[in-house]
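Dear support,

We are seeing what looks like truncated structure output for some complexes. This example has two components. We would appreciate it if you could run it in full and send us the complete token output so we can diff it against ours.
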Amino acid sequence: NAGVTQTPKFQVLKTGQSMTLQCAQDMNHNSMYWYRQDPGMGLRLIYYSASEGTTDKGEVPNGYNVSRLNKREFSLRLESAAPSQTSVYFCASRGGYSDEQYFGPGTRLTVT
Amino acid sequence: GENVEQHPSTLSVQEGDSAVIKCTYSDSASNYFPWYKQELGKGPQLIIDIRSNVGEKKDQRIAVTLNKTAKHFSLHITETQPEDSAVYFCAASILGSGGSNYKLTFGKGTLLTVNP
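Here is the complete output from our reference environment:
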């Protein structure tokens, strides 16, 4: 069991470039989440997917789009990166009878 | 929406001492309060959680208390060890009947340093 995996681990973008952050889980979880973590700000929810085929906005969705490709995969896309999107991005999943969210190792993104 | 305040932002203790981190929440409908530990370079990991029908929960050296009237909850770590050094986050959520799409609102985190 790999749990929650994220790719890439690190990425540097120039302002205006686009990219997709990938997330996959092998725990057969229904719900998946994308967070961003900034110094002194804690973890803020960007988007989430309660189940395959559904997505909803979180606290800070502007500038992002998501796709729940299938039950395993949930991707986050930045269409036109901005320096304000420099952050560490975490994917998480939850399912079964547990309330626990399982987090991936994160992607550190720098936008110059 | 829910707002979670966490204090202190940094906490330094000597090995063997106790550490207490406190959080308050704003939405009286919140009924689930987890605590996550984040080690350097890793994703957060759940260490303990409590539901609103329970006032206290313990797991070895870790305990969480909840005061629904005052809308605050606390993490207590006893006999601290250097490996307890990490960032700790509290969170609050509303678990519905299905519970499949609940959202966590996190506090801003506490950097705990345990000095040998």
